[in-house]
Specification:
This protein is mainly alpha-helical. The protein has three helices and no strands. The protein is globular and about 40 Å long. The model has no long low-confidence stretch (mean pLDDT about 90).
Length: about 80
């Protein structure tokens, strides 16, 4: 079964959290950003081979936004 690539942050977030069942916690997000920034990372190389540099860049932007959203969520929970 294959799914279309997400076209928006909302679609990407749904794919990660709902379809894949992965919580977007800060440690996961930071690990993904580190991997996406590493051209020697095997999964990053495979990702760009399969989906192209343009989608890699878009995904990196979405992961960065998720980190920002996580920070805002944490800030709103502080007394």
């Amino acid at each position: 079964m294959s799914f279309p690539l997400p076209d928006s942050y909302t679609e990407w977030r749904h794919c990660i959290t709902e379809i894949c069942g992965i919580p977007l916690g800060e440690s996961f997000i930071r690990a993904r950003l580190a991997a996406l920034d590493d051209d020697n990372d095997n999964m990053t190389r495979k990702f760009t081979e399969l989906y192209g540099r343009k989608h890699w860049k878009q995904t990196k932007d979405w992961v960065t936004r998720a980190l920002k959203d996580q920070g805002e969520k944490n800030d709103s929970q502080k007394p």
